[in-house]
Amino acid sequence: MADNRFHYNNEDDPYFISYKKTYGTNMNAHHYHNSYEVYYLKTGERNLFIKDRVIELKTGDFLIIKPNILHMTRNGKLPEYERIILNYRDDFIDKDKKYQQDLSNLFQQDYMVIHLPLQDRILIEDILNHMILEVDSQLHGYETQIKSLILHLLVTISRSAENNNIKEMNHINSTHEKISDVVKYINQHYYQVITLERLSNCFFISPYYLSRTFKEVTGLNIIEYLNTIRIKEAKRLLRETNYKISLIAEKVGFGSLSNFGRVFKEGTGHSPRYYRTNKNS
Questions:
Q1: CA 276 to CA 102: how far, in whole Å?
Q2: How far is CA 138 from the centre of its chain?
Q3: Of 7, 123, 131, 200, whose CB neighbour count within 10 A is largest?
Q4: Distance from CA of residue 77 to its chain's centroid?
Q5: Is pLDDT above 70 for 3?
Q6: Could you report the per-residue pLDDT of 239-281, keeping only the tens digit for each?
Q7: What is the mean pLDDT of the chain?
Q8: Of 192, 272, 264, which Cα lies nearest the Cα of 238?
Q9: Cα separation of 50 and 73, whole Å?
Q10: CA triplet 8, 13, 14: central angle to 5 degrees?
Q11: Which residues form the HTH araC/xylS-type domain (predicted)?
């Protein structure tokens, strides 16, 4: 099966557009970014792990994610899929109060899934295809055109949301619901000593079953997920505070500075000190 892809810019730029039509791929890791993400599933099915649960995405679903929300997509029941992703930062769209008021219903939650009726899907696909043509041709004024297209896109989605097209965030099954509770617990207590045995006792699940099921549902084992949450918070503290690195390591749950440094570098590719100096922007 052909793997058709289109990318423009990267996730460090003010906006990023990606189109992909492919067969059966899982993201390599959970990720988050400092931009809004707009994800449109044109065809197929995907399972989305986001924040503390798994959501089934189907053809015609439109997902909006606020900045710094952990998420990952994985194969659904149908492995072939086609999707378009748009990421944009606040500073790319003027921070006009009128815009914020008109679009406020889209950003009251950390994420929202809207199932678009056919008429809206046709319009949305036209807007997204127009964006791709603009960035591909890069004619005079193309970035101004992209800004206007993003606003057109968001207003269209906002109107669709007002028509009660927002999907309920139901758990896929009782197992997913139980693992969601475990994830919420880790999200709230990441700075404490968390072990498989502790979680097993808290949720009355055998260690073996919990370990296996957690990996199946989230795509990570418990330690990998815990470290992801800890590093996410450590990055925030490195950007937003002047705390000593040793104090940050302690605040996010690491028992030693050396272990913190090792895990941080594995997760980011840089030492905490380098990140603070070079990524604090």
A1: 36
A2: 28
A3: 131
A4: 21
A5: no
A6: 999 999 999 999 999 999 999 999 999 999 999 999 999 875 4
A7: 86
A8: 272
A9: 9
A10: 100
A11: 180-278
| Token code pair at residue 261 | 């440094």
CA atoms within 13 A on the CB side of 35: 19
Nearest-CA neighbor of 29 among 249, 231, 280?
231
* Residue 85 and residue 128 in contact, taking contact as beta carbons nearer than 8 Å: no
Q: Specify the DSSP element, H or E, that contains 137.
A: helix 118-137
Six-digit token string for 35: 């931009």
Phi, psi of 83 (to 5 degrees): -145, 160
pLDDT digits (tens, 9 = 90+) for 11-48: 556 778 888 888 766 665 678 888 889 999 999 999 88
**Domain ranges (residues) in the chain:** 4-162, 174-278
pLDDT at 52 over 80: yes
Which pLDDT does position 99 carry in this prediction?
72
Asked: is 4-162 a CATH 2.60.40.10 domain? The reply is no
* The two structure tokens encoding residue 262: 């090792």
CATH number of 174-278: 1.10.10.60
Helix axes 174-189, 196-203, angle to 10 degrees: 120
User: What sign has the CA pseudo-torsion 20, 143, 13, 99?
Assistant: negative
Please state the φ and ψ torsions of residue 172, each to the nearest 5 degrees: -65, -40
Q: Do domains 4-162 and 174-278 have the same CATH topology?
A: no
Cβ atoms within 10 Å, residue 33: 16
Amino acid (one-letter) located at 184: K
Residue among 100, 178, 84, 90 at smallest CA distance from 132: 84
